[in-house]
């Protein structure tokens, strides 16, 4: 996740210092005791001191850590006999920590990875890890109470084959099982609905190592024997690397350059890789991404177009190409490209969100409404999708439903400030 999400998690962990102190069995410091008046006799002071010593001795014998004794007023001490000091409260225990409630569980799976979302009513401690082989991701939730059954697996899930729950003494363990190795990409505790928190766990397919094709066998050139009785000598000559091998090296150089911040060097290496192997799709998509980031959308569109038309069901490629088309103002073409990727693309809420926005901008408001609602089935806690649904409903003339969608977007939270202001303004105008 981004640095902002990590900061939110840290903020959640730091919230409520008094509650954290009580959780660890530490009692807040008592107030300053009243000082006795000068008219109090020495005998009364001595009696109060003896009572305090007896109280401390009782706590020590009971094996408990003594709490600060409440202040004793002189007149109260005088009214009680010295032989009956207050009994220590040995049976008192620290207040129990309120357990967070898991209100909802959502899981979605697509070609780009798996996303697990847990809607909690308050911040909660958790641990997440991937198994050594990558076929399982285990999420352990400390001190949470479960409410409701596990959700069904997404239909035609490309990665996920199972979601299991196991109770433990200190909470629950959720295990996601995959058909091939996955990487635990990130986890985050984000602001949720109704003042709660949303735990997001994302796993992505483990990339296969880029393997260059095996080199051709070395050419064996037998040397001439010095004389007929001499043993033959074999001379080995290595042939130069193939074009595919050189392209793979250039692609790896470009990836390293991008990670190091050398964008110009990465573009040069990617162009060389595509010149050697035009079918290297990873190099093409990475170069297009760099072009988009530098504001050269037309160049990215020309670069991605042939590959997207050749592979119309490659959802990440289609999404990248369609976004460039939308930014360059080619809405009808973006619509055709996205619709050609159906029904496979409908399993990805990002795909549905982009297609819904294209429908809405082209005036097909009812189609936009249906598309946004399909995306919300996969991702019901996305405030941006609720805002898009509200815009589409308002365009379709359904003001009451649009008002409800706008309100849901605000209640869910997490929108960009500009979008949140727009939604607030539209909600006020519809009331």
Shape, please? globular
Structural class determined from secondary elements: alpha+beta
Q: H/E order of the elements? A: HHHHEEEEEEEEEEEHHHHHHHHHHH
| Superfamily (CATH H level) name of one domain | Tetratricopeptide repeat domain
Integer average pLDDT: 74
The rounded distance between the terminal residues' Cα atoms is 37 Å
- The third-level CATH topology of one domain is Serine Threonine Protein Phosphatase 5, Tetratricopeptide repeat
Q: Portion of residues in helices?
A: 40-55%
Which terms summarize this structure?
disordered N terminus; alpha+beta; 4-stranded antiparallel β-sheet; globular; Serine Threonine Protein Phosphatase 5, Tetratricopeptide repeat; 431 residues; 15 helices; 5-stranded mixed β-sheet; Immunoglobulin-like
Write up what this structure looks like.
The protein is an alpha+beta fold and 431 residues long. Among the domains are: 108 residues, Immunoglobulin-like (Sandwich), CATH 2.60.40.3500; 136 residues, Serine Threonine Protein Phosphatase 5, Tetratricopeptide repeat. The strands form 3 sheets. The protein has a 5-stranded mixed beta sheet with strand order 5-1-2-9-8. It has a 4-stranded antiparallel beta sheet with strand order 3-4-7-6, with no helix packed on it. Strand 8 and strand 9 form a beta hairpin. Helix 9 packs parallel to helix 11.
Short summary:
With 431 residues, this protein is of the alpha+beta class. It has helices spanning 3-14, 17-23, 42-61, 74-79, 243-259, 263-276, 281-293, 297-310, 315-327, 331-340, 349-361, 365-378, 383-395, 399-412, 417-430; strands at residues 100-110, 113-120, 126-130, 136-142, 144-146, 160-168, 171-178, 182-191, 197-205, 219-222, 234-237.
